[in-house]
Amino acid sequence: METGAAAQIITIEMVRTYLDRLAASVMERDFDTFSGMYELPFVIHTRLHRYERRTLEELRASFDLWQRTIVVNQVTAVVLRPRRIESFGPDMLMVDYDADLLNGAQKMLPTFGNVVLMRRRGGIWRMEQAMTGTENDSDSLFLRVDPENPQPQTETYILDQRPKKD
Description:
By secondary structure, the protein is α+β, with helices and mostly antiparallel strands. It is 23% helix and 34% strand. The N terminus is likely disordered.
């Protein structure tokens, strides 16, 4: 997601374009595009584990995990849908999105949620951290989602009850 001087406002279309490009990179086996979308070190928090990708070789392991999952599950489309975007100034975003791996119209894994921290440096948006609904650790062979509880938290709790500005 690159922006020029005229495109300083963060829009949902920018985020959708970024997520579409990410999905296309894994479906097209395009590691160069995939790796350019991440800031190293990249931290991943799954439901069971935390690990880092410090080098391109380590990031390649995450890409390979996607590739094995796509092949084994005969995935024909990866669909990433933004649910919520929060901006922390002009160069930092939290993006909450759902992921579906499909074969035609059939889900090959349960839908799983992700929340990513993105930063813009030199006009380029990259992911720095991800919290994902998968259960993977750093040496998993395939993406794993708990089928009994794929979306453990679907409610948003607002703790600050101050009056909103009009």
